[in-house]
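Course exercise 7: structure representation. Students receive a sequence record and must write out the corresponding structure in token form. The form below is the worked example handed out in class, using Putative pumilio homolog 7 chloroplastic (479 residues). Read each field label carefully; the graders check that inputs and outputs are placed in the correct fields and that the protein name is recorded exactly as given.

STUDENT ID: A-19
EXERCISE PROTEIN: Putative pumilio homolog 7 chloroplastic
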Amino acid sequence: MKVDREMEILLNEIPLLHHVGLLGGSEAGADDDADLSFLIHELAAMGLVDGDDELPAPGAATGYGFPTKGENLVAMHSFSMASHYAHMRSLFVPVTFDDAAAADGWDIRCSPPPYVPLPSPATPRARCKSVRRKNGSVMTTSPKKCGAAAAAKWHGESLAGLRGVMYHMARDQHGCRLLQQRLDDGKREVDYIFAGVSRHAAQLMVDPFGNYLMQKLLAVCDDGQRMTLVLTLTADPFALVRISLNVHGTRAVQKLIERLSAREEIGLVMDALRPGFLELIKDTNGNHVVQKCLHSFASNDNKAIFAAAALHCVDIGMQIHGCCVLQRCIARSRGEHRDKLVAAIAHNGFKLAEDAYGNYVVQVVLDLKIPTANSSLAQQFGGKYIHLSMQKFSSNVVEKCLKVFKEVDKAKIILELLATPHLEQLLPHCYANYVVYSALKNSKGSLHSALINAILPHEELLRTSPYCKRIYSKFFLKN
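STUDENT ANSWER:
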């Protein structure tokens, strides 16, 4: 009860007043004429003690343990922190008033508070600006609950009055679902929803629920509304990049890219994505946005992507997501854009061939069978085929070279294999054995016979080594 709480606080304050000398103690330099009648009146007003209309005469016994005028309270009741903790309990420990009175000599009489009937609970209503009390403070209802309440109230009714809370509805699971359903009701409802959420497009695109509404809104809005969304999203140079990097936002941006048709819209989106191209292309979510641009836009619209890919081909080609985007760039580029990109990759072919991801990019370039590119790669690989054949990733590139190179360049690879003084080390090697097998398959004539003759002395090794089973079964069991 409130009265009990206030009484306990006053009881705990009495020893502290002793301690600081406020009750007339000479050690604290207090005034000898200090009058404590005000404290008695406060206790009487609270119903803790019996108050009198008139103050007690000087020197008369008060009955409350208070010193009379001129008496030294410190001399009467010496105070120490130890005695204070011994007699005065913590405010947080329940105290019975009988025990307190017995311990301190207080005559406590506290009448119960008057009974006040509680108001009957009102019927709960969903209101956006409703308030509630919690720990003595006023709190407003959360916006998401406002959105859910609005969704429940306005199901099946006009959306004209929901513009103020439509953003909050879109971030609520049920509210977002309702708005998506209302988008199918015609142009009027689309206009209402667009007016309510278009200003918050960037926030809704990264929202777990709001992104679904934005995707559907992009599919049904007209050209003017779509242009408004594009201008909103590209006003901040990095806003569209941040949205594309988000796990929810990437889907909404991909849907936006699918719906773009005007050259002006495409130009605005490409200009907004360009500053974060390198980050987007390496990101789990962002790389899908770049690939959607490559798939949806014409080659000339993607020229900025092709130029950046050629400039950073080594950096992105040696990354798990980047190598996929780089392969898509090769497939979608045309004319001079593809020539520059292929030339840049071929120029760095040896470094990429040894990489876990870059080797796939080199193989794609080899499959194009562009004479200038393959010639550049053959020149870089020459004299290093043994080294490349004994590595996990580059051995795949050597196998591809044996398939797509011209006969002259194939002969150089096979001659390098024959010239090695330790062919018996390549045959049982876990990676090089595939290169030898591919050389046997893609050679013919005298070169093929020379390779067979070099392998024959090692027939016993081929029979026992687990890595030579393919070579032995294909070229020796038949004979």
